[in-house]
Design brief:
This protein is an all-beta fold and 171 residues long. Helices cover 0% and strands 48% of the residues. The protein is built from no helices and twelve strands. Strands 3-4-5-6 form a four-stranded antiparallel beta sheet, with no helix packed on it. The chain has a four-stranded antiparallel beta sheet with strand order 7-8-9-10, with no helix packed on it.
Amino acid sequence: FSFICNALHAQHFVRRELTAELEIPWEIQCSNDGNLWISESQGRIVKVNPTTGIGKQIFKAKDYSDAHPSEKSNLCHKPSPGSGCLGLALHPDFNTDSPYVFLLYSYLKNPLTTPQTRFKIVKIELNKNRDSAIAVWDLVLNLPTGFDHLGGRILTIKEKGNYYLFVSTGD
């Protein structure tokens, strides 16, 4: 796992080994201050300083879940529904006055009665130093999953003063 992006989003890259211990890294975003924001498959976000290579866990989804065993289907090539952390996006004004991160990950709907793997999108507010989460809001719940080739991404943009969140899921 080894690349660093320039803080000004120029086309200059320096290859360097990161010392951060990461578990199934999935998506990487680079903020204007040069830090890397990395989602891990198990519903975590790690902030990595590219100069030192040191990472710090910023967020862990308390309700993250892999597929429930009762959902397995032997009729499918991949018997368990898709799960994981599929998308990470920084707010378009992340580096100024909007310390928000968006995350797309799996959770169990009705975990105690009829467990169903679903995906959700949360909005995470970070503290002033952007090194810990101080609030989390569910934005979208109950996104369906599938049994094979599951993928997803999220993207935030600012267009003509309006903010948009784009989501893709599926095969």
